[in-house]
Amino acid sequence: MAKADRIRTLDPCGLVDRAAAAQLGTVNYVGGGPWPDGDVNQCDVGIDAATGFLVMSVQLTVPLHTNPPVGNRVQLGDLTGYISAEYGCKVTIPTESMIVTYAAPTECPALQRLVSFSAPMLHNPPTRADSKLGKLDPCETVAHVSGSGLDLGVSGLASSCRSDAEEIKLQYIGTATRLDSVGVSIDGIPVVTHMDPVLGRNCEAVVYLGYDEPHAMPAVNNTTSLIYEIARITGFMRGCDSVNSDAAKLIASYRRAR
Q: Dmax of the chain from CA atoms?
């Protein structure tokens, strides 16, 4: 889990060369992804290009032997990447500590040029100094729940963890105005729970961990969004009282994070 712990503290938005991105068009949004909300380990860059608005994403994942790189090999300075025309274009750069994936609905030569300028940043990736969410280990809470098969999922996302009994995802959510208190309050933090409407057997909870301290970030069309750090908990075959108990543990860990 050490690699996942480190990835959660990194800022994927800092792995994009802004000047190179501007060659694709006017950059009007840089923030958590999938836009406008998203996972801790992903950043989206919104670009007004000649062909229309496009979103380029940067995603950090834990290296998994089950997911070998896909695509044609390409040299990016002293790093090796793999490029494929998947949903536009995707460039994957595997390193010893993480896998970095750049993707955009654009032609591959344009994305490859951007990545070639951005790749040197992988040697000393920036961290999120103002984020408590990146300092949380979702597996720490999941481990308290009975169940087996503790893992990061097939995608290797450092921002999520699951067992047979529970899954926790660390995410951001963006709003135009400050959130009103919703759901129930656990130690002053809003928690919204409901039973899965499809199966009716799983309890799902949204825990607004950063309710008291949202971050203001530039958004599209020269507006500003308030970004809240949240966790999504899904209890498999468990009631909402049990899930709320885990939400309380997560809230306590978040408040201890520095």
A: 53
Which pair of tokens denotes residue 225? 């969004």
3-state percent helix, strand, coil for the chain, nearest multiple of 5? 25, 40, 35
Give 160-197 pLDDT, tens digit per residue.
Answer: 888 888 899 888 887 877 888 788 999 999 999 999 88
Distance CA 43, CA 77 (A): 23
Give the CA dihedral 179, 185, 187, 193, nearest 10 degrees. -100
Residue 58's DSSP bridge partners are 43, 102
0.70 exceeded by pTM: yes
Distance CA 199, CA 103 (A): 34
Report helix, strand or coil for 31.
strand
- Picking from 175, 169, 184, the residue whose alpha carbon sits closest to that of residue 224 is 175
